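Re-running Probable RNA-directed DNA polymerase from transposon BS to confirm reproducibility after the cluster update. Everything else is unchanged from the original entry.
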Amino acid sequence: MTGHGTLVIVSIYLPPSKSLLRSDLEALLALGDSVILFGDFNSKNRKWGCEIPNTNGTNLYKLSKELKFEIIASLTPTHYPDTLTSRPSTLDLAITKGVSLYLHCIEALHCLDSDQRPFILRMGPPAGGLPKPMSKVTDWKRVSTALEEIDTPALNNIPDVVQTPDEIDSSIGALTNHIQKWSRGYLPTPPLKKADSSLAIDDVEKAECLADSLELQCSHTIPPVDIHHITRVEEEVRHKTSLEPRNDLSPVSLDEIQKLFKNLNAKMASGLDGMSNKAIKCFPITLLSLLVAIFNACLKNCYFPPVWKEAVVIGIHKPGKPRDLPASYRPISLLSGLGKIYEKILKSRLSEYLFSKGLIINEQFGFRPHHSCPQQALRLVEYITEGFKTKKRTVASFLM
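Result of re-run:
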């Protein structure tokens, strides 16, 4: 399957009380032309992520230079001690010699409660002999037909005309459940170190660990200066949003929805509803018509469904940061695809209104099409340059 010659694979276990011997390694590596030693070497070295090295680890790294073999280690620890005073370490390694296979990955598997994690090594054919990669081809026309044929009782109970906020929420819920009948996914998260140095292993602990870290990072270091001012602003916002709209926004049409769907990025991740853009692009005409009714009801009621405001917050590892620390992950909020489509509908109508009424000054560059920060910086440079030419001083005021 790999196109490689005979491989000798040896399972290794070196007890903590035993010393690593050069003669043992020489004998094992002499078993064949291509040898993989795989297992628990109980050897610690900073070269493979162990903070405190031991004698076996120092000797193993030294022997790798002398005997010319490769040491392959996981990026995450494979041993998590039960005691809080002990630190996780990488005891499980792979040693290869004479192997020309391509290393795809080596990783610890966090699927057991044991202090010793199993780990997996994936290697493929050598360079130049890679098989043609397998590709998955989805028959999206068939998916669209399946969505139309799935029987969801709640979808059949939606009224012909969606008017009130309650009807909007129930319609969105029925539509989401309809799609979720065949769409699901899972995203694993590595173990994280808590503030007390213990490890968050299960999903609930990991979520709480990330939430605590994000709360700490996003909290104000000092309380707001003027609480009364903030209260007045909030009251004014509530008053403004409770008023009837003076101008009606143009209704959403089926043609507009179809154009928006056509331009959706199919690779974007789904939100809390698990509804991917790939699935949304396959909506049959019946679901598109339902969505048009929901969007128009939202516009009429000045309503943004709460379910579209909820996000799945995931952590993306920051390059070069420790993988077991929650602060090493930056948050990304995954919103509902349908909610983002509604946002585009609102944006197009609000932009049209603001520009037609001249409510956006020419000097504003933020959140405007065909305007960017470099252009605004260039505009400032031009002002300063003109001041130099006329021997005038230019003063700028910046709001932070």
